[in-house]
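User: My instructor asked us to take a sequence, write out its structure as tokens, and then describe one feature of it. I'm not sure where to start. Here is the sequence I was given:
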Amino acid sequence: MKQIVSAILAIPLLISTFQAGAQNKKAYSFDNLPVIAKTFFKKDTINILKYGAKNDGITLNTKSINQAITDCNKRGGGVVVIPEGLWLTGPIELKSNVNLHLKKNALLQFTKDMDQYPLVEGNWEGLPQMRNQSPIWASNQQNIAITGYGIVDGGGEAWRMVKKDKLTESQWKSLLASGGVVGEDNKSWYPSAKSMKGAKMKNAGVITKDKDAAFYAEIKDFLRPNLLVLNRCKRVLLEGVTFQNSPAWNLHPLMSEDITIRNVYAKNPWYAQNGDGLDIESCKNVLVEGSTFDVGDDGICIKSGRDAEGRKRAMPTENVVIRHSTVYHAHGGFVIGSEMSGGAKNIFISDCTFIGTDIGLRFKTTRGRGGVVENIYARNINMKDIPGEAILFDMYYAAVDPVPLTGEKRETPKVELLPVTEETPVFRKFYISNVVCDGAAKAVFIRGLPEMSISDIFLDNLTIKAKEGLDIQEAKNISLSNVHLDIKNAKPLIYIQNGSSVTLSNISYTNAELLFRINGAKNSNIKLTGTATSKAAVKTEFGHGAQADVLEIK
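Assistant: Let's start with the prediction itself. The structure tokens for your sequence are:
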């Protein structure tokens, strides 16, 4: 068998420009991209058949697979082969210098018997929590891989709660007939009473001194594991394999370094609660390329811990390259947050397509997180059929699905000025260019906090067809240049609330009943150039303390 090698990246210099306010164009580049350390494995091959594994879909092969991995590790490493067939198993532990290789037509099926997954101290949504053991996991290992052509199935339907409003009537009836428990509101289904009991608690899995083993045992089914967790590992390769049907998140590298994820397919039902595709948390030096995501929550997501625990960890996710990948259904195509309290920086995403994701580029946080997100670069992004915003920056994330379900009512966040503390998040230095979106609810939404404006956002060369145009709130040093908007409801085309140093250059549009609506007493230095204002029925409207002299049109 040929050696499996993850090549060191050799990425050419790519240069683009943005107009920064009224100043000269600001040059930036995709240079200095991270070099990802390669994995390397001995040719030695171990077949799990030699350890008594059976592909009958009935025999539990947990011991056979884990023993093969252990022996391979003890021999100095190599390749452990999963042949074709359906292999039922419990949790699998990856170990250093071992490449777990799935042959074509190999299905690694994780058992739905929850007793096979012991409770362990883990991490969930950025906090230390008690969880069921992940189906595939590794901790403090080096030079590990999962490669090949097969499928890894997490048996997620045995774990996940399901919302009635996300199913058809026949699907809901079929789910009820399968067993489980229905919530008091008759709108949620749980696989067991333990699952429902945990769901009613706040932070049920968070580890505290007052919780003993008996407490966690009573809500065990609620503490869903992520399908794959790699904790504090170095030199990791995931290549060619399909990872699907995860109990919670699908792929979760945590506090790890030098990760290559190439040509994988992460798949979940669209209604899968917390069914993220890829969550890169507090990791350094990551490449994701040629991969496909079709999931129930965020597609490709950057995280770094939550609130005080994330700030205490102080491990930003940094030096990440994401390219040539596709996201179908997801809450967001590419996402940062909301658990980003350790920060995120030096993230490069290019040449990706989002089709049907609730939001395209999604950057979210909220008060209490803290953390600094900066130096984020995106270019050559195509989008189609986006139910929400094509590009969104929101510092009022409310932990709900981005697109409300039918009949769901939501209130606009209360605007109030609070003191700046370590809990105040910072979003700055975003550079986004060459975006085409065919269909969205809103083109661009930028919303900061009164005490901490989003700042230094440079958007260039956008073509977006949407129902609504540009919405900019509590933001400073914002530049949009060479933007074409095909807006159905341009009333207004551009809304600005408390914006400072907002520069709009070469904005073209099909029509607008109202070009500008500007609200708020803190607006200043708003400039529009190179734009045909005569195409708008009404040019400007000012309110809530905004003065006409804050806007300059040339």
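For the description part of your assignment, you could build on this observation: The CA atoms of residues 410 and 474 lie 21 Å apart. Try explaining in your own words what that tells you about the chain.
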